[in-house]
Design brief:
By secondary structure, the chain is mainly α. The chain has 2 domains: 96 residues, no CATH class; 58 residues, no CATH class. Helix content is 54%, strand content 8%. Strand 4 and strand 5 form a beta hairpin.
């Protein structure tokens, strides 16, 4: 699987919108790109110096990263990050113990509505959580149903978890444009 900068830019944009990554993580990513690139592009400089910008402005800058989009790849990266940041969803009286978990899943659900490019395993897992959550909160089941649904969602991105930790291969530059591509590395000793 060959990931490109656009896949990561879209992943970072969605992660920022969901509160799964920080603005500092995005700046660190682009600064790493800048360190290894001979010819800088405007979007790199803009993102690198975006510390004081509003998150929506940062998402617009990420949208300007060139490359071919692949919503499935970016969403699987997002789900992998979700599993790292929130490996479990805690319950209290068949409701989320942490309100941010409820908001997070609600935003995740809104990301998939209207996007026909996502495969059934991702779309189905997110829909299932939303549907089952309504039933559990009404008393028609227990929290173990939500835990199972959440584990199934995280399983849709299990092959992508190691791609959150990446290194860049900067040997390819074509036509004066940044044509860097990203090579994944498995971080076996980092507990992933």
């Amino acid at each position: 699987m060959q990931l490109n900068l656009k896949h990561y830019a879209d992943y970072f944009s969605m992660s920022l919108a969901l509160g799964l990554c920080s603005h500092a993580e995005i700046i660190a990513w682009v600064d790493q790109l800048i360190e290894h690139e001979d010819q800088l592009e405007d979007w790199m400089i803009e993102l690198s110096t975006s510390a004081s910008k509003h998150p929506l402005d940062v998402m617009h800058l990420l949208d300007s990263v060139p490359g071919e989009r692949n919503v499935e790849i970016s969403m699987r990266l997002l789900i992998a990050k979700l599993g790292i940041v929130h490996p479990r969803l805690l319950a209290e009286n068949n409701r989320f113990a942490k309100p941010e978990h409820s908001r997070l899943l609600s935003r995740l659900y809104s990301l998939i509505t209207g996007d026909d490019c996502l495969p059934d395993d991702i779309r189905g897992s997110i829909y299932q959580i939303d549907c089952d959550l309504d039933y559990v909160e009404q008393g028609y089941g227990d929290w173990s149903i939500i835990e199972r649904d959440y584990d199934e969602l995280l399983a849709t991105a299990s092959d992508y978890k190691q791609l959150i930790h990446f290194q860049f291969d900067f040997h390819i530059v074509m036509g004066g444009c940044c044509a860097s591509h990203i090579t994944s590395t498995l971080q076996r000793n980092e507990g992933l």
